[in-house]
Structure formats: structure tokens, C-alpha cells
Amino acid sequence: MNLLITRPKHDPATHYLFYWAGELVDEAKRKGVDVVDLLKKKAKRKSFQSYLRKDVCNLIIINGHGNATSVGGHDNEILVSVGDGDDLFKDKIVFIRACDAGAALGPEIMRKGALGFVGYIQPYMFPSDKDSLHTPLKDELAAPILECSNQIGLSLLKGKSAKEAHEDSLKKYQEKIDKFSASNSTSTFLLPFLNWNMMIQVCY
Amino acid sequence: MSEDQISQDVINLVIARLQTIPSNVSVSIGGEGSYTIEQLIERIKKQDEVGKKMVEMQLAYIRSLGKVATAA
Predict the structure, then answer these.
(1) Domain of life of the organism in this record (chain A) (predicted)?
(2) Hey, which CATH number is domain A2-203, 3.10.20.600, 3.40.50.1460, 3.40.50.720, 3.40.50.300?
């Protein structure tokens, strides 16, 4: 297995995704998986599509901002969109952690031969603690949501299918919802965020 | 929902829910940016896209509680 991952870091949301996706990079390296890590300014269309054309990676994880038809990298430069690079995922498994890309881009990637796709069909939202901006991995408000989406990557790195990874993630969401629904929880305001991101996560 | 005006009752309900969130919380809404709770409340009052999406998220959760109750 070889992993191609993008993790730009140019605004507060990508700052958080950068560090949480870094956990996936670390786990991949622990498992001996070869990693192409397009981090920060390296997350550009030319490099990304060039690596896809070389066909050296079979697991693709994209972190960034998206919309229904495209997903971006550094400074939101479009990495791939419907009609531009969506045919480069043949025989690959794809996880896009970005808003909306599961609505049109995901189905198109599948139509053009991908093995599996996990993404979101609406905006991906998460809360964070303003005092934890410099330590995103220790942010107890963001962690429950980002752990659930990270589960997709962790399961894929174990060799599971997109469908199995999606189901593992949904199971983790439900565990978090049960935890924060407990009467002694002081963070019940996290529940709508967990419910939302679970509801909008799709797998093809 | 984004095409429609939201009723004042729903707006008041969602704002009341957001007012229970601690002030140290900010919310990232994809590419739209990150917002304080106060800013989100303003967006909900204005009924712009960010405000409508926040209402949609809160209502989805409230509806999910109804499903739990029905299932039980």
C-alpha cells in the first residue's frame, strides 16, 4: 500500500486538519506504508496530479476545502474537479475530508473507475477551543469530531475497504454521541456537530 | 432550507441553544471560515448562508432525537 495525502495549512480549519491528518501520516509510517506527503505549499494541483499520473499510490487522502465539484489544496488552489483530473483515481481508494465533495465529485471519481470513495455531501463543521489553537491535537472540543473522521484513514491504512472504513467511522460517531449524551456530560453542545458530520458522510 | 425564510420561532430556538455554548468555542464551517458563537448568532439573525446552515445542523440534531424517542 502507498499513501498520497494532501494537508494544506493556510487558515484555521486547514491548520486543524493539517495536524489531525499528520496522525494518519505517522500511523502510515509506523506500518511501513510509503507516504507521499503533500503538506502546506506542496499541496498544489501540478504536484498532486503528477503523482496520480505516476500511479505510485493506491490510497489517496485529501484534506482541504471543497465544494460539490472540486477540492482545493494550498490557498484553495483546485487540485481536482469534475472534468479535470477526476479520471486519475482508477483502481484507487479515495477519502476526501472537505465540504460537499461527496455530492458530485465523489460519484464522478467512482464513475471513472475508483475502487471506493468516502466524503461529505454538505459542509464539514467542527467546534474548537480558541485557547487550543496552537495545540490542535489537544483540543478537547475538536477531538471528538476529528477522531471520527480520522477513523476512516486509520481503517483504510489497515487495509479495509472504503465501505468498512466508513462503517468504522459511523460506529465511532455513535460511541461519541452515546458518551456525550450521558447525563453527566458538560459538553452536550458537541452532539449536533457529531450528528451532522455523521449524517453527511457518504461512501460509494 | 437555503431558499426559504426561517420562522422566528425556529431562529429563537436555535439562538437559545447556541447561547448555552461556552464563549471560548469557535466553529469552523468548511471554506466559509471560523466563527465565534456571537458571530454565528448574528449570521442566524441575518439568515445568510452560514446562519441557515447552522440552523439546519441544529434542527437535524433535534429531529434525530425524535427518531430515538420513536424507536424506543
Answers:
(1) Bacteria
(2) 3.40.50.1460
